[in-house]
Design a protein that fits this description.
By secondary structure, this protein is of the alpha+beta class. It is built from eleven helices and eight strands. The chain has three domains: 98 residues, Butyryl-Coa Dehydrogenase, subunit A, domain 1 (Orthogonal Bundle); 112 residues, Butyryl-CoA Dehydrogenase, subunit A, domain 2 (Beta Barrel), CATH 2.40.110.10; 142 residues, Butyryl-CoA Dehydrogenase, subunit A, domain 3 (Up-down Bundle), CATH 1.20.140.10. Strands 1, 2, 3, 4, 5, 6, 7 and 8 form an eight-stranded mixed β-sheet that branches.
């Protein structure tokens, strides 16, 4: 894999998809955002998002990773990663809605294979068509890295369940129709002495006893999070995903894959930051009318930034290629998440430094990207959690 700020792809199918995606992101979607005055810190509505879901579906991008039977193109992980990288590199606010990351098919994850016919028809096929949206509700205030300490509980009630608890950081919650909720089973009798079991449920967000509240605004300033408050909310048995006690396996079943697939989007955003920094260093004049990039100190900074990006990108795509070959990449996924998060943060820190005052100013894209990338060192598993996973894997190697 060679280094480029605008990568080419040897695979013709990937090259064609990337070219069409770039055209859409830089053209039609950019115009749409400009016409509607959409900014990273603005509040998005369904009326903002639904046209993007429909248009992306028409162009073949929304749910493109899915099998053909669901209207997708059955992409490999490497091909999907190439598209996700372009989304991150585009600078588009609504890039997260093009493949279905924000409330769409990518947010639903791997639950299709656990769904019944009723669940497909009622929840998931409308989701794939862009008619409904979902959020994933796992995290709680005191159950983040250790999700098994959650207090949300599901109690059997005749032919259904009653859920009570408070979920936080439910991304896409402000415009979702239903949530995938994981809850601890309230056991009785002998089962109460066993270790806790968790189940997953599809919960309509307009159900009695379910309330969607404004979530905390993350440091990125985006208004995309909700709290899902469940107060004796009744959920039909038909909405149980899989079997009782399988909820955590369903929720975390593709954790290795998902951990890897978060990396290309961050790599794309980092690529954009380097591109913006080079442009700034070429055009900003210093003493005697020379460009900032003529200074050796700046040259060394951008050289280190590019090298870090190349290393992070290379190891990520190497792991994705191995995953496509059917090989186990559990340890490599930990390594990629750790290295990409830490490298991207260092690169963005230098980007702010080179931009100077502009890099500290709200409304400047570099300032926004710095805040966004900083979050990745915590989200989807902190860097410390990744190191724990790597160390455990090494301890069991002979």
């Amino acid at each position: 894999m060679t280094f480029s700020l605008r990568p080419d792809h040897a695979d013709p199918r990937t090259a064609e998809l990337v070219a069409r995606l770039r055209d859409y992101l830089d053209g039609e979607l950019a115009d749409y955002e400009r016409e509607r005055g959409i900014t990273p810190s603005g509040r998005l509505t369904r009326s903002d998002l639904e046209p993007v879901w429909r248009r992306s579906r028409e162009l073949g991008f929304y749910g493109v990773h899915l099998p053909e039977e669901y209207g997708g193109q059955g992409l490999t992980y490497t091909q999907l990663a190439a598209l996700k990288e372009e989304l991150g590199a585009s600078g588009r606010v609504l890039a997260h809605s093009v493949l279905g990351d924000m409330g769409g098919p990518l947010r639903a994850g791997d639950i299709l294979r656990h769904a019944t016919r009723h669940q497909l028809d009622t929840f998931l096929l409308p989701l794939i068509r862009g008619e409904r949206a979902c959020c994933f509700s796992l995290t709680e205030t005191d159950a983040g890295s250790d999700v098994r300490s959650m207090s949300t509980v599901a109690v059997r009630d005749g032919d259904g369940y009653r859920l009570t608890g408070h979920k936080v950081f439910s991304s896409a919650g402000p415009f979702a129709d239903f949530a995938i909720v994981v809850a601890r089973m309230a056991e009785t009798g002998e089962q109460a002495d066993d270790k806790p079991r968790f189940s997953a449920f599809l919960v309509d967000l307009d159900s009695p006893g379910c309330r969607v509240e404004d979530g905390a605004t993350p440091m990125s300033g985006e208004h995309i999070e909700s709290d899902i408050v469940l107060d004796d909310c009744r959920v039909p048995a038909a909405n149980l995903l899989g079997e009782e006690g399988e909820g955590m396996r369903i929720a975390l079943g593709r954790v290795t894959t998902n951990r890897l697939l978060h990396c290309p989007t961050v790599l794309g955003a980092t690529r954009r930051a380097l591109d913006l920094t080079l442009d700034r260093a070429r055009t900003r004049l210093v003493a005697q009318g020379r460009p900032l990039l003529s200074l050796q100190a700046i040259q060394h900074k951008v050289a280190d930034m590019a090298t870090g990006l190349y290393a992070a990108r290379s190891m990520t795509y190497a792991a994705l290629a191995a995953l496509d070959e059917g090989r186990e990449v559990h340890t490599e996924a930990f390594m990629c998440k750790l290295f990409v998060a830490e490298s991207a943060f260092r690169i963005l820190d230098e980007a702010v430094q080179i931009h100077g005052k502009e890099g500290l100013t709200q409304g400047n894209e570099i300032e926004f990207l710095f805040r966004k990338i900083r979050m990745f060192r915590v989200l989807t598993g902190t860097s410390e959690i990744q190191r724990n996973g790597i160390a455990r894997a090494l301890a069991f190697q002979h």
